[in-house]
Write a structure and sequence with these properties.
Number of helices: 12
CATH superfamily of the largest domain: Translation initiation factor eif-2b, domain 2
Distance between the termini: 34 Å
Structural class: alpha/beta
Largest sheet: 7 strands, mixed
Bound molecules: 5-S-methyl-1-O-phosphono-5-thio-D-ribulose
CATH class of the largest domain: Alpha Beta
Shape: globular
Radius of gyration: 20 Å
Helix content: 40-55%
Number of domains: 2
CATH topology of the largest domain: Rossmann fold
Strand order of the largest sheet: 6-5-4-7-10-12-13
CATH architecture of the largest domain: 3-Layer(aba) Sandwich
Order of helices and strands: HEEEHHHHHEHEHEHEEEHEHEEEH
């Protein structure tokens, strides 16, 4: 049995008429799925981080469009198409940085536009295919990335890029899973403030598979690298520009700078659905800012207006600091020199 088969907790479950979303805000203490039957609910689940991680956001939104069609399609009311289109716009506003969201919505929109009559079967099939393809892509990336790790002793990852962030298996965490099956590997995870995706999700998800991992405070990364314990930093991505600049969870850029200083390599793992062929560099990426209260201890907002918080939740790592970008279609070594192959840009 592979680790992927063993893991039973999935971020998303499609029932045929509803989408069950694991409320990741409550992990690891509570495993609870909420059931959604309309796009509005799915958009809210994305915006409030019940479901998060670029590929999982895209898949959830695709099912959201299918749910919209179930809610609004009627053989007699010709306005159903307008209503589904409005729901697509609503879903597009749920989070700004992960390009997988917009990629998935574009796919669903083109199926909708191609359909003259009952769209339910074709939209459901498209969402299901986006989901299944993502899992297959993760496994392909897992093998390609693990090839780069031959002989590595230790890795550090950031945020959560596993089954919880994808259709299943994971991007950066998929590479770590695949490498761990092949060879001994020390796995470190940064806690990933302020949402603690590393502490609450990554080390928990690995433990569900029986894979040991060591949590570090984000601020311990430099000292960990200085100790010689890790050979690679391995992260996912929310959007990759044509030149290889990569937006990912806030703190990724710091890790890349530290990795350069310590002779540690930097690997980005993402499916081609995370590539944004429309932008030349990371300067064009919209970085999401979330509410200051996600960062500020409650006392401040209750007691004084003098203290505020700056809360960007992604940053951009320049391609010059990245050693390898792994996609399901292949690996780009030294992306600053080569950029992303144009054949991969959809
Ligand atoms: O704010 P989040 O939790 O959605 O951020 C997630 C990340 O930054 C991940 O690293 C990225 O989406 C890749 S997930 C395979």
């Amino acid at each position: 049995m592979t680790t992927a088969q063993k893991l039973t907790v999935q971020a998303l479950q499609w029932t045929g008429t509803a989408l069950k979303i694991l409320d990741q805000r409550q992990l690891p203490a509570t495993i609870i799925y909420d059931e959604y039957t309309d796009a509005k609910g799915v958009a809210e689940a994305i915006a409030t981080m019940r479901v998060r991680g670029a590929p999982a956001i895209g898949i959830a939104a695709a099912y959201g469009v299918a749910l919209s069609a179930y809610q609004h399609y009627s053989g007699t009311d010709g306005r159903w198409r307008e209503k589904v289109t409005a729901d697509i716009e609503l879903l597009a506003k749920s989070r700004p940085t992960a390009v997988n969201l917009f990629w998935a919505l574009d796919k669903m929109r083109s199926v909708l536009n191609a359909q003259q009559d009952n769209p339910l079967a074709s939209l459901t099939a498209c969402a299901g295919k986006i989901h299944a393809d993502d899992i297959a892509d993760n496994h392909a990336m897992g093998e390609l990335g693990a090839d780069l790790l031959i002989g590595a002793k230790g890795v550090l990852t950031h945020c959560n890029t596993g089954t919880l962030a994808t259709g299943g298996y994971g991007t950066a965490l998929g590479v770590i899973r695949s490498a761990y099956q092949r060879q001994p590997l020390a796995i470190y995870a940064g806690e990933t403030r302020p949402w603690l995706q590393g502490a609450r999700l990554t080390v928990w998800e690995l433990s569900q598979d029986g894979i040991p991992a060591t949590l570090i405070a984000d601020s311990a990364a430099a000292w960990l690298m200085q100790s010689g314990a890790i050979d690679w930093v391995i992260v996912g991505a929310d959007r990759i520009a044509r030149n290889g600049d990569t937006a990912n969870k806030i703190g990724t850029y710091s890790l890349a700078v530290l990795a350069k200083q310590h002779g540690v390599k930097m690997m980005v793992v993402a499916p081609t659905t995370t590539l944004d062929g429309s932008i030349a560099s990371g300067k064009e990426i919209h970085i999401e800012q979330r509410h200051p209260n996600e960062l500020l201890p409650a006392w401040y907002s209750e007691q004084t207006s003098l203290v505020s918080a700056w809360n960007p939740v992604f940053d951009v790592t320049p391609a010059t600091l990245i050693d390898a970008i792994v996609t399901e279609r292949g690996v780009v070594l030294n992306p600053a020199e080569h950029g992303i192959p144009s054949a991969w840009l959809v």
